[in-house]
Amino acid sequence: MITFEAKIREQTVRLYASVPLKNGAGAIFRVLADVSRKTNIFNNRFTLNFGWGFFFLTERTEENGEKFWVVQTIDFNGNPARDRTDDLTTALVVQNMQMEAVQVAKVKPVNCTCKDTVLVLKAAIESNDVYMHRKEETKEGDSGWYFGLMDDPDEENHVLSDFEAMPSYKLIAICPEAMRVLQLPVGTVAVFSNKQLTALVDADDNAMKFTSEEERRRLGEKQRKEFEAEVAAAQERAKAEQAAKAAAESESAE
User: Fold this and answer.
1) Residue 224 belongs to a domain
2) Is residue 135 located within the same domain as residue 202?
């Protein structure tokens, strides 16, 4: 697990993830720092809704007695209504996917949280050819997104029991790439084939730009190498500082 750390109002804040998601971690730290200027976030009750995710600050104590704070998020592998986890990997990956989609498409995001519901056609859950269409939300907690079948032969004959309204985080298990488009605006239509995003259009049926799987893989490899280089440089600096300190102590002893 990789540890990201920041100082916010003289408090040590740590964030854990299994992959080097430096940009996502940095974004959360910046938002926490901004909010801390307006309200007390260090009280074990604070909740931050940042984009798709919800984040919490929990106080911990080192073996030496020093206090620090851990950023937690909802545990989707447990009971999301009550369980939290220190592992922010999923939340940060989704956040990065959604930020990339909005930036590449050059649109203003419309928020959808992990708790907001998506209307899902049950027959589409196991299908390889599906689409998503975002309409105006009908009530609070409704994302406006619909997840359905491409070329649905029964489109005009569906009954209420053919659908299920589910929180958006459940799409992770159905079609992970669907998480990418959740912050795109009303009118957006996204098409998926074999779990991959293949087409994206806006409310006026104009094509929207998105990155390909190959482009994302190349970018991810570049970011991983950059992060590893930064870690290696930091380790070398730490070794040099320790060596200098040891040398100074040796000279002092003489």
Assistant:
1) no
2) yes
